[in-house]
Amino acid sequence: MLPYATLIPLDRQLSTPLSTQIANALIRHIRQGVMSTNTKLPGSRVMAALLGVHRKTVLTAFDELTAQGWLMQVPAKGTFVSSRLPDVVPSPLTELAATSMAQQTGFTINKKPFLEIPVLKTSTILSFDDGLPDLRLAPVEQLGRNYRNILNRGFQQHLMGYADTNGTPFFRQQLASYLRDSRGIPATPDHIFTTRGSIMAIYLLSKLLLEPGDVVLVGDLSYQSANLVFDECGANRMCIPVDGQGLVVDAIEAICQQQPVRLVYVTPHHHYPTTITLSAERRIRLLQLAEQYGFVVLEDDYDYDFHYVGSPILPLASADAAGMVVYVGSFTKSIAPAFRVGYVVCPPNLVAALGYRRRIIDRQGDTILEQAIAEMLAEGDVQKHLKKAQKTYHARRDHFCELLKTTLGNSVAFTIPDGGMAVWTEFDKAIDLPQLAARCRNRGLLFNNGRFYQPDAPIVHHTRLGFASKTVDEMEQGMEILREIIGL
Ligand SMILES: Cc1ncc(COP(=O)(O)O)c(C=O)c1O
């Protein structure tokens, strides 16, 4: 008889029932050939005594394995490993003792090296990040209260089930009126499609609208994650220069005169990564060109809420009566990145098409979170939070730019951004930026080494230094590390 007490180790601390542990162990030994087909198992009483469990536990395990086809019960003879399983050559017992998961797949994965760009993560270490909100200011109390209330209220059942793929109706309604009030987009709930953040919106739209070879125009530079999506879709991505007024729209026209353009990706409010605002004149021209040449304007308004000079310029979508602009936004910057609620604003026929596309990978969004945010919008909590955050970030921008100037002097050059949460900073050519970033990291200050923004450039001198998430003390601490390492 096999040493069942050793082969079937049971751990009573685990939440896995003992019968399941027995069944799993037996499956493993059958798979690995320790127990070959037609092996007779001890009777349930004997097995129970060997394993120190109740007989019913063994019977439950045997019944389950019989139902799954691993074992067969032969009347008046006993329980056997099923004769219909293929024979497996046994491995040495020492090998069988390994219970950890494999570190590598046993099959190949088609590699796409262009996708393998590291993601930026929020860190608990001091950092001048890519331009992230201060999570300490996030209105989590109101959000948590709303979330809990929704679950307690008793009408949660319809929210906890399968729901509308396009988004929670109350959220779409509240968002439409918020977008009308805050940025002049005359949307109705039928123009809103919810997603789990902007990047998902960009992905779904690209999958829906792009065919391999389609020309997609982006700024030089642009948002790498969007570039990856366009490349993944097989688009023919072409770069347009960006100057002091944003995307050079004349260059877009020049390309349109040569060949069909399917989509232009823009971050007009604060161009990513350089933070430049697209001038009013170029906005109008871009809309005219979109109508004339029939291309989609994909407007990624990732940080609309934070603008410090005059009133924010209204989005392109607010002036688009022809249905050429698809507007993407999210609450990941205005509340916090962990709360994955974003949206697309577009004509209803595109909302419907997005819904069909989304269903393939994600049946619906986070309905309860959408409802909780909708209630915050209805109660004015989001608006109040943004007003406060905007004031704080404005002061932080001023302080940060002043510090950059006074602490780092001629080692850096930058334009004070009109809005957003980061400063596009150029380091002196004599400074090796990736090396500086690595040395600062060793001293406890993280910032992007610039390669994220220009993965193909042989040398990089620019990076984004985020100020919004840092208090004055933290900024000063970080700046001091930079100053020391640069050697000023
Ligand atoms: C330009 C731009 N678009 C979109 C996003 C992604 O936002 P989300 O977290 O909503 O997917 C970011 C994130 O930093 C961004 O910088």
Automatic annotation (TrEMBL):
InterPro entries: Aminotransferase_I/II_large, HTH_trans_reg/aminotransferase, PyrdxlP-dep_Trfase, PyrdxlP-dep_Trfase_major, Tscrpt_reg_HTH_GntR, WH-like_DNA-bd_sf, WH_DNA-bd_sf. SUPFAM superfamilies: PLP-dependent transferases, Winged helix' DNA-binding domain. Keywords: Aminotransferase, DNA-binding, Pyridoxal phosphate, Transcription, Transcription regulation, Transferase. The keyword Protease does not apply. It comes from the Bacteria. Residues 16-84 form the HTH gntR-type domain. Pfam families: Aminotran_1_2 (PF00155), GntR (PF00392). The keyword Nucleotide-binding does not apply. GO terms for molecular function: DNA binding; DNA-binding transcription factor activity; pyridoxal phosphate binding; transaminase activity. In the C-terminal section; belongs to the class-I pyridoxal-phosphate-dependent aminotransferase family. PANTHER family: HTH-TYPE TRANSCRIPTIONAL REGULATORY PROTEIN GABR, TRANSCRIPTIONAL REGULATORY PROTEIN. This is PLP-dependent aminotransferase family protein. It comes from Fibrella rubiginis. The lineage of its organism: Bacteria, Pseudomonadati, Bacteroidota, Cytophagia, Cytophagales.
